């Protein structure tokens, strides 16, 4: 603990903004991880409830379930079932599901991109702190006794490098969390697309959906 406190104190004033950037990034990462985990659990629960209703063609009940559910997959399937009541064309139902998916994805990706930006900011703050520290060090050494210049310069450079080190210490976990959350988001989106395809295939098998041609209309 003493080593950490000394390292922080020797880094200078730039250690504080880097700490703030790291704290903001960790807060965003924790909130997104909790949100994505909840979305994954609610998706599984909602689809387990909707799947038997699809098999029995209980569309009214499906609409009720999707309207009362907070699961992202409910918006996708609900959009398709609602469109089924207006148009039985497969393309129309598929487009409605894609629209529901496009409305849901931004909520899953929200704020995740900030982690990459915060990682870059922490790195740049560390470099800026080092440069300013070196400028101050050389200015101080210029007026120092010649016999002490080498010792003072080495000590000043060591202190200035602390901000670069701390900037990298903050940036690396933020980049790892950014990659982790992007992977988790992609898995949820892929599962929603697969659930939408299963839903559409079930509707095709149960309702014999397909494009209405002019010949069939006649």
Automatic annotation (TrEMBL):
Q: Name one GO cellular component term.
A: plasma membrane
Domain MotA/TolQ/ExbB proton channel, residue spans: 70-194
Query: One GO BP annotation here?
Result: protein import
Annotated membrane-spanning segments are 14-35, 114-137, 157-177
From which domain of life does this come? Answer: Bacteria
The places in or outside the cell where this protein is found are: Cell membrane; Membrane
Q: Is Metal-binding among the key words of this record?
A: no
Q: Give the record's keywords alphabetically.
A: Cell membrane, Membrane, Protein transport, Transmembrane, Transmembrane helix, Transport
Q: How does it sit in the membrane?
A: Multi-pass membrane protein
Alphabetical list of InterPro entries matching this protein: ExbB/TolQ_transport, MotA_ExbB_proton_chnl
Q: Which family does it belong to?
A: Belongs to the exbB/tolQ family.
* PANTHER family for the chain: BIOPOLYMER TRANSPORT PROTEIN EXBB, PROTEIN TOLQ
Q: Protein name, please? A: Adventurous gliding motility protein R
Species name: Glaciecola nitratireducens (strain JCM 12485 / KCTC 12276 / FR1064)
């Amino acid at each position: 603990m003493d080593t950490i406190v000394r390292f922080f104190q020797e880094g200078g004033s730039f250690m504080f903004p880097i700490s703030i950037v790291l704290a903001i990034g960790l807060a965003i990462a924790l909130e997104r991880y909790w949100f994505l985990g909840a979305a994954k659990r609610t998706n599984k629960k909602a689809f387990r409830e909707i799947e038997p209703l699809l098999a029995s063609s209980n569309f009214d009940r499906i609409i009720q379930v999707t309207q009362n559910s907070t699961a992202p997959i409910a918006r996708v399937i609900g959009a398709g079932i609602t469109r089924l009541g207006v148009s039985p064309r497969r393309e129309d139902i598929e487009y409605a599901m894609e629209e529901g998916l496009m409305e849901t994805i931004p909520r899953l990706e929200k704020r995740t991109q900030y982690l990459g930006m915060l990682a870059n900011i922490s790195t740049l703050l560390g470099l800026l702190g080092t440069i300013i520290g070196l400028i101050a060090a050389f200015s101080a050494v210029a007026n120092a006794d010649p016999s002490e210049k080498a010792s003072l310069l080495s000590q000043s450079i060591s202190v200035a490098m602390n901000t670069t080190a701390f900037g990298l210490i903050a940036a690396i976990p933020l980049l790892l969390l950014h990659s982790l959350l992007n992977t988790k988001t992609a898995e949820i989106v892929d599962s929603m697309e697969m659930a939408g395809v299963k839903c559409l295939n079930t509707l095709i098998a149960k309702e014999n959906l397909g494009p209405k041609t002019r010949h069939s209309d006649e």
